Structures are given as C-alpha cells and as structure tokens.
Amino acid sequence: MLVVFCAVCLVAVAVFFVVIYAKARARTLPLNEAIGFRTRAIMRDESTWERTHQRFAPVFLADGLLFAFAGVWLALSAFVAALKGSASYVVLAAMCTLLLITVVGGVMANRFASREPRPGSDSGKRDGEDG
C-alpha cells in the first residue's frame, strides 16, 4: 500500500511540474521566491524572468514526464511481479536523470539571463542613437 501511495505522490508532483511548464511557456509564471529558476540574473526583473522561463520551460516538462514515468513504474511494480525487482532502480535512474536535466537547464538559463540586456540599458543601440 505504501508503494501505491508513493506512486500517487510522484504523479502528483508530475502534474505540478507540467503546470509550471504551461505557465512558463505562456509567460504567466509570476516572479517569485519559491518556484522556477531563481538566480540573481534571472530574478533581476520581470522581463528577464519571463523570457528565461519561456525559453527553458521544456526543463519543467521533462521533469514532469520523468516524475510521471517513475510514479507509473512504481505503481505497476506493486501489481506486476516481473517489475517488482526493478522498481527501485528505475525510480533512482529517473530521479538522477531529472536532477541532471534540472541542473544543466538551470545553468543554461542563468547564462541566458546573464546575457540579456537590462531594461533601459543602451546595449541594444548603435553608437550615436538615442532611442
């Protein structure tokens, strides 16, 4: 019974990540201190936050799919004897992959945000232009 509960929890987390993905893609994920990529460069202003999360939203989708896969596999392992021995390895592999994707995606998102021009800066103007 505990295995099924854990599987349901993993699938619930998967749904949460898919919602974050949808909000990031739509640029409706508000700048906040709890959800999303939160580095100084990414959080410096709303525009940078929105552009960065829209561009790197697939990271959240991948996380959601990996959580869902792990949850479904775990649930199946509770009912299919042939899967019982592999469940912990499959879930561990999914979580390690999820961690790798999230860290690499976060580093890439931070680099992207660091290269974004600051609002009101002259970095997008040619010499002699006033705007």
Offer a concise description of the structure:
The protein has helices at 2-25, 46-55, 57-79, 81-84, 87-115. It has 131 residues and is mainly α.
Following the backbone from N to C, one meets helices and strands in this order, namely: HHHHH
Biggest β-sheet: count, sense, barrel? Answer: none
Count, helices: 5
Shape: elongated
Q: Point out poorly predicted stretches.
A: 125-131
Provide the gyration radius in Å.
19 Å
The level of helicity is: 55-70%
The total of beta strands comes to 0
Give the rounded overall mean pLDDT.
91
Strand content: under 5%
Domain module tally: 1
* First-residue to last-residue Cα separation: 65 Å
Structural class designation: mainly alpha
Describe the structure.
Helices cover 69% and strands 0% of the residues. The protein is mainly α and 131 residues long. The chain has one domain. The C terminus is likely disordered.
List the helices and strands and how they pair.
Blueprint lengths: L1 H24 L20 H10 L1 H23 L1 H4 L2 H29 L16
Descriptive labels:
5 helices; 131 residues; disordered C terminus; mainly alpha; single chain; 69% helix
